[in-house]
Amino acid sequence: MRIAIRMDDITPDMDWKKFLRFKEILDDCGICPLIGVVPDNRDKKLRIDPPREDFWEYVKGLQEHGWVIAMHGLNHLYTTRNPGMFPIGGKSEFAGLSYVRQDEMIREGKRILESRGIVTDIFMAPSHSFDKNTLRALKKNGFYVVTDGFGTGPFRTEDLIFYPISVKRSASFEDTRAGIVTFVYHTNSMNEKDFEKLESLMDSGRVVSYTEFKKLEIRDRSIVEEASEFVTAKAKYTVMQVRKRLKG
Ligand SMILES: [Zn+2]
Q1: Section 12-27 average pLDDT
Q2: Would the pTM of this model clear 0.70, i.e. be above it?
Q3: C-alpha 219 – ligand 1 centre gap (Å)
Q4: How far is the centre of ligand 1, averaged over its atoms, from the C-alpha of 108 (Å)?
Q5: How far, in Å, from the CA of 48 to the mean position of ligand 1?
Q6: CA of 76 to the centre of ligand 1 (A)
Q7: What are the residue boundaries of the structural domains of the chain, listed by start?
């Protein structure tokens, strides 16, 4: 399996040192990732450095350079504990809210991005959490691609295209089937070991730019595949919760 890179939590006040270190590693291999930009970040946990004044110009520059931009929620605030249709997180900015409210939020996020010169039709849900109303509101507001779900390549469900993420990195790495999965990174919380792992991943020659997804055929999914994804996602979440508890 080939591997695409996704970087979450891109904000004007993120940890720039880590972000730029990550970028340098990608640049050295000529790889362009998907980045999830928060239109109007209000999540204090993502505020690390003083905000970069030229942030939006900088992001536009990345897009011109081949980086792919996704809208990562609106404010990145978790307002519900509803894990939604792809339950690998236990909280959400969207799932559980009314269609009218979600439509407003998605429209507002898009408006903010466009006012900054950023146009995208890709959505990245904070904490991977969305429900049927989110998907309906996305379609209404011109989003066609969601970066989530499990699989080996793009698939269509609910009239949207999903570019899958990896269930388990080591398993995706060993998987010899054709296809692409996404490895998800939060640069703000990466440590030295994480960077070392990233470097050895890049050395493997498996990593491709995010735009490679566009070259793959889009599959329709069966209800059985959908149900199995839900169960896998729920199991992944449960395993992570148990691990967290064991760590104390
Ligand atoms: Zn996030």
Answers
A1: 98
A2: yes
A3: 27
A4: 18
A5: 14
A6: 6
A7: 2-247
